[in-house]
Amino acid sequence: METREAYLERKFAELRLLNGCLGTPLPLSAPASVNEVIRHKFQLTAALKAEHALQHWADTETDWSHADRHRAGPFEFSYDYQRADLDVRGPDFYEFGDGIACDTIYAASGMAAISALVLASARSIDNADILVLAGSYGETQELIERHAGHLRLVTLGQAQTSRRPKSSRRILLLDSSAPAVAFDDALRGVAPELDLLIFDTTCFFGGSGRIRRVLRRARNAGVPVVLVRSHNKLDSLGAEYGRLGSVAFVFAEDDGAWGRGTAFGALPYQTRDAVRLFGGAALPAHFPPFVGTPAYRALTMRRTAAILRNSRRASRHFVAALAGLTAELNYVHGLYVTLAGRQELDEASARRAAAAMSKDLGKAGLPIRHAGSFGFDFAATEWFHDATTDRYSVRVAIPDLPTALWDDLAKAIAQWWSVNQRRCAAA
Questions:
Q1: C-alpha–C-alpha distance, residues 198 and 130, integer Å
Q2: 35 near 276, Cβ under 8 Å?
Q3: 100-136 as b/e, with b when 16 or more CB fall inside 10 Å?
Q4: How confident is the model at residue 319 (pLDDT cuts 50, 70, 90)?
Q5: Radius of gyration over alpha carbons of the chain, in Å?
């Protein structure tokens, strides 16, 4: 358990880290409440963005100033017109360990990154089966179904009715937003028969042991791996610093290159080309200037551990208090849970329920907001769509609050949902 005092001390360390990135640090005192933590953190990240804009006013899209170096904290950039050739030098968001290297391409968001990768793969192969986990991120499935005609979407564990013959190429899309059972089953299926493994790591801390486990499994099977990620979740200390995504082609340093001798050997080049042609290059201003230090890694690890601890406590409580009123409590990432209604929800009713819950509990002084993301310093509610089952629910994103406060909030969420979900569905 984490006490209120330990929580505030940890949060003060996060605020000091952010403040230290400013050229002129702001006066900063220790926060006395969760609301002060939230307010100070968003004020500091706003100040960081404003300072970057003031200091780098000449770094325009056309790079007319031809500055020797463009910088954002520890990151250095070089580029020409519209950042189509953006080159980034700086710390890695992942912690792979010795002997592992990667070629990383940054994009304007997580979806921009995976879109460039998926569409670029058409240059390497005529067609392939892309195996996805039940419960994988809905927009990724939409992307494949609507815009990747060379890929046949195959949901693992479901009977296939398509008349299209099985492709000789097989790609596994391993998604960190899937339920734990589906994720673990898919990981056990990583075998030499796969031609490519795409791993969306967005919901895992960059130093997660699960990421290293996936890389070891793929390495042993001889399967090339590409990591895709949205960085404005766990990599931003809860403040959503800016829209940033990446595609990382991971390989052993002894190999010297990614995908050598495979059908996908040219995929890094093709992905860079896709980012250029689709106008999806990253913005230098969106690279968090506070990453890369031992303090950042330690604080991010402690934040993630607190979220996971609170998630386990909430799941145990919801099992007992909300029998029959939960959708999924055991996602592999442990960052959020989903609640179901006695009557089936649609998008509108799920949205209303998420907003009403946050409004009512927020009025009671609890740290909860209606927000369409996760990893914040407050609990966040939003509607949720499972693209595999086509069912809607309400997502509750777990914060890293002090244990006792989170337990009180989890109980309040369960009580509110038990009493009000029927009204929200009927509204």
A1: 10
A2: no
A3: bbbbbbbbbbbbbbbbbbbbbbbebbebbbbbbbbbb
A4: very high
A5: 22
Take residue 12 and report the two structure tokens written for it.
Answer: 């003060």
Q: Comparing C-alpha atoms, which of 222, 199, 208 is closest to residue 110? A: 199
Q: What six digits make up the tokens of 45?
A: 């990240």
CATH architecture of the domain covering 295-426: Alpha-Beta Complex (3.90)
**Token pair 């992942």 is at which residue?**
94
| CA–CA separation, 197 and 215 (whole Å) | 10
- CATH code for the part of the protein at 70-286: 3.40.640.10
| 187, 209 Cβ separation under 8 angstroms | no
**pLDDT tens for residues 341-370?**
988 999 999 999 999 999 999 999 999 999
> Quick one: which of 259, 244, 219 has its CA closest to 93?
244
Which one has a higher pLDDT value, 69 or 172? 172
Contact between 384 and 393 (Cβ < 8 Å): yes
Contacts of 202 (CB under 8 A, 6+ apart): 110, 176, 177, 228, 229, 230, 233, 234
**Residue 237's pLDDT band (cuts 50, 70, 90):** very high
Hey, where are the domains in the chain?
Answer: 4-55, 70-286, 295-426
Q: pLDDT of 15-37, one tens digit each?
A: 999 999 999 999 999 999 999 99
Q: Which residues of 228-262 are buried (b: 16+ CB within 10 A; e: fewer)?
A: bbbbbbbbbbbbbbbbbbbbbbbbeeeeeebbeee
Question: Strands 336-339, 170-175: parallel, antiparallel or unpaired by DSSP?
Answer: unpaired
